[in-house]
Write a structure and sequence with these properties.
Elements: E1 7-13, E2 17-26, E3 29-38, H1 41-53, E4 58-62, H2 68-75, E5 81-85, H3 99-111, H4 123-155, H5 160-163, H6 170-181, H7 183-190, H8 199-207, H9 212-219
């Protein structure tokens, strides 16, 4: 099979270590050199220097969780080209899976051009995508909390949504807190809401069942 990259390397990335296998073809002979580095910044810089000393033009690593990201960031400014591989597409033969074998197998695939590179956006885009994912997760958590609060109030038969448009608003939060301590004070505070119904109906809506006090305490 044709060799496309005579000087390349494969990296098997883990949480604490990176196993690197350099594959060099010279005069029809194939030589391999394997070293293990820590994932600290200083060790990753040493890894990049070692790869450059060996004249590597292409270096491949698997996209394993988030462990590959700091390795990629440190090696991104090196002279060689980084290739991020899909772990499922470069899976090794079952029963022979070791760190050294995985790195050697990855370098073998890369040398023959059999590793399909995944798209890796620029650092600024990666940061923006991370912020968007975090915001999306926070919005989901907020919605889940509101639904849990509404369910608890319904279980206590407190019809707070009938009185207030926003059960997470300042009036609602203070009213729930007062209802658990002083129902009369809580009723007076909620009565200040412009949407309030008549006072007798309002009192019936927020009195709740015998479990209302416990539910109110859980909703604070």
């Amino acid at each position: 099979m044709e060799v496309m990259y005579p000087r390349c390397a494969g990296l098997d990335v883990h949480k604490e270590t990176v196993v690197a296998c350099v594959r060099i073809v010279e005069g029809g002979e194939v030589s391999r050199s394997v070293r293990t580095f820590a994932t600290t910044t200083a060790s990753l810089i040493e890894l990049g220097e070692w790869l450059e000393v060996n004249g590597c033009t292409h270096v491949a690593m698997e996209a394993t969780g988030v462990y590959w990201k700091p390795v990629w960031q440190v090696l991104a400014d090196s002279s060689f080209e980084l290739v991020l591989a899909n772990a499922a597409q470069v899976k090794n033969v079952p029963g022979r899976k070791t760190d050294v074998n995985d790195a050697a197998w990855l370098s073998e695939l890369l040398a023959h051009g059999l590793v399909r590179a995944r798209f890796v956006p620029e650092p600024a885009i990666q940061e923006l995508r991370g912020l968007l994912r975090t915001r999306k997760q926070l919005v989901r958590e907020k919605a889940s909390h509101v639904q849990r609060l509404q369910k608890t109030l319904e279980e206590a038969n407190i019809k707070l949504e009938t009185v207030l448009s926003d059960v997470m608003g300042a009036v609602s939060q203070q009213g729930r807190s007062d209802l658990s301590r002083d129902p009369a004070r809580g009723l007076h505070r909620i009565c200040a809401c412009p949407r309030r119904p008549s006072s007798p109906l309002l009192q019936n809506l927020i009195v709740g069942t015998d479990t209302a006090r416990g539910s109110s305490l859980r909703c604070r």
